[in-house]
Amino acid sequence: MKKFRRDDAKRFIQRIKTYLETEYHLKPKCECLLGTNRWRSKADIFVELKGVKLFIEVEGSQPHPDTNVAKYWYWIDQTKPKGKVVLIHVFGHEFYDNNYRSRTLLCGFLARKIRKQGINFVYRPIPIDKHHPWSEKWLISDLLKLTRKEINRLIK
Hints:
This protein is an alpha/beta fold. The protein has a single domain (6-149), classed as Trna Endonuclease, Chain: A, domain 1. It is built from four helices and five strands; from the N terminus they run αβββαβαβα. The protein has helices at residues 6-24, 66-79, 101-116, 136-154, and strands spanning 29-35, 40-49, 52-58, 85-91, 121-127. The protein has a five-stranded mixed sheet with strand order 1-2-3-4-5, with helices on both faces. α1 (6-24) packs across α4 (136-154). The longest helix has 19 residues, at 6-24. It is globular and about 35 Å long.
């Protein structure tokens, strides 16, 4: 089975960017810098949509996806953004295998901790089904459909 890799992630990020541009007439930022004076990191996609700060992270090769959730916690703590912050987190199927199960559970744990601090934070993991053979066709159709659904649901 072909794994979801960095090049696949880049193509998917471009598809989501195009969707946000055509569907909502927005100009999403790719590889958007997050940070403060002392700390810098990047978001794969950022757009502000109807008062919602929407971030999309796509894991193409990172073996520690929980770091992405932690960086948003730090960013929220340092910048105190107003309104809702949404993180859509797309995972390749290898993150749901035994080796990475603890990492994906940690992502959810961190998201719950962020919300317990009274922060209007929504975390939506979108797994790529590990039983579905990976293909460019699936990237373009099913995964994009899931992400569109989440975007539309979250901005209402």
